[in-house]
Amino acid sequence: MPESYRPHLRKDDEHPRTTSQSVSSNTTVSHATVQDVLDKKDGRIITIHPEQTLHDAVVLLRDNRIGALLCVDEEGKLAGILSERDIVRKLADQPGKTLPHRVEEVMTRTVETCTADEPLVVVLRLMTEGRFRHMPVVDGDALIGMITIGDVVHFRLNQLELEALQIKQLIVG
C-alpha cells in the first residue's frame, strides 16, 4: 500500500456543519465606544465662560434642559465644569446670595475627560466610581462633546431592545 493511502471512514460521509450562532456570538458584550453615543446626540455643546454669573448658568441649564455646563476660556479650551450639584452646594452655603457669583467661583476645575474612542464600559465605570454624571469628550485640547449617565443608559437600553428583537425574530423565524 502506498503511504498516502487512508481507508474510507464514516466521518468522510458527514457534511460540514454550519452554525449561524454560537455561544460566543450570543454572549459577547458589545464593544461600544463613546463615539457611538455621540453619534446619537445632536452635536451641540453648551458652554459658559468662567466670568459669567451663576444666574446666566441657571438660565442656560433651564433653557437647554441639561444638568451641567462646560466652562471654556476665551480660546474655547476646557476650564472646568459647572453642574446643578455645584450650584446647590453654593445655595446651601449662601442662601439668597448665590446667583450674582461668578461661575469660576463655583465650577469644578479638575475635570475628568474621555476620548471618543474609549470603550463605553470604561467611561461608565469612571463616572460611577467618581460619582459624577457628566463627562466632557476631548480630542487633544479640542472639546468635541459631552456624555452623561443618561446618554449611556439610553444607548444601552436601545441596544437591549434591538437584541431582544433579534432574539424574537430568531425564535419566530
From TrEMBL:
The keyword NAD does not apply. Residues 1-29 are annotated as: Disordered. Keywords: CBS domain. Residues 38-98, 107-162 form the CBS domain. InterPro entries: CBS_dom, CBS_dom_sf, CBSX3_CBS_dom, Diverse_CBS-Domain. The keyword Protease does not apply. CDD domains: CBS_pair_bac_euk (cd04623). Coiled coil: none annotated. It comes from the Bacteria. Residues 18-29 have a biased composition (Low complexity). This is CBS domain protein. It comes from Maritimibacter alkaliphilus HTCC2654. The lineage of its organism: Bacteria, Pseudomonadati, Pseudomonadota, Alphaproteobacteria, Rhodobacterales.
